[in-house]
Write a structure and sequence with these properties.
Elements: E1 17-27, E2 30-40, H1 45-64, H2 71-84, E3 96-98, E4 105-109, E5 122-125, E6 128-131, E7 135-138, E8 141-145, E9 150-152
Antiparallel strand pairs: 1-2, 3-4, 5-8, 6-7, 8-9
Helix pairs in contact: 1-2
Length: about 170
């Protein structure tokens, strides 16, 4: 696996190898952002384990989102799940970012952001675990903060995906 996924070029995925797909688009000047992972062939046991940890972190963060909660508390909800599973050192970015006219806006779900969530805010939730030279798994969803919590705007399933046959 190449060290920098942005330079994949014509790289071929092997059986059981994950493919991380980060998609974005702009419609009427508003940005969308989503990441999903698929496996070519049957996922390895490690792939499945990491995927389940990342999915649990994604769900924990989404459950914690509601008005008045500081952004850093949402980051902590996901980060703590990943740490408890023993992969804390492999989650090297913030949990998410604001989304709107630009793909990366304030506020962010990060360890430092004290901004309190308010209804109408749109952000991404994207925990990830990246084992250098082995695999990287991230699940990214777009959420809208509502008066009672949040609505997940991303409609693509997050459950462990079916395998791509090769």
């Amino acid at each position: 696996m190449p060290e920098n996924p942005a330079t994949i070029g014509s790289y071929r995925c092997g059986r059981g190898q994950p493919l991380l797909v980060d998609l974005g688009l702009k419609l009427d000047h508003v940005c969308a952002d989503m990441t999903r992972c698929v496996s070519f062939g049957t996922p390895t046991p490690l792939w499945r384990e990491i995927y389940q940890v990342v999915l649990a972190a994604n769900r924990a963060a989404i459950r914690a989102i509601r008005p008045g909660v500081p952004c850093k508390a949402i980051d902590a909800a996901a980060r703590d799940m990943i740490k408890q599973a023993g992969y804390g050192a492999y989650f090297g970015h913030s949990l998410g970012h604001g989304l709107g006219l630009e793909v990366h806006e304030s506020p962010s779900f990060s360890t430092e952001c004290t901004t309190e969530l308010a209804p109408g805010m749109v952000l991404t939730v994207e925990p990830g675990i990246y084992l250098p030279g082995r695999l990287g798994i991230r699940i990214e969803d777009v959420i809208l903060v509502t008066k009672n919590g949040c609505e997940v705007l991303t409609r693509t399933p997050r459950e462990l995906p079916r395998c791509v046959r090769i």
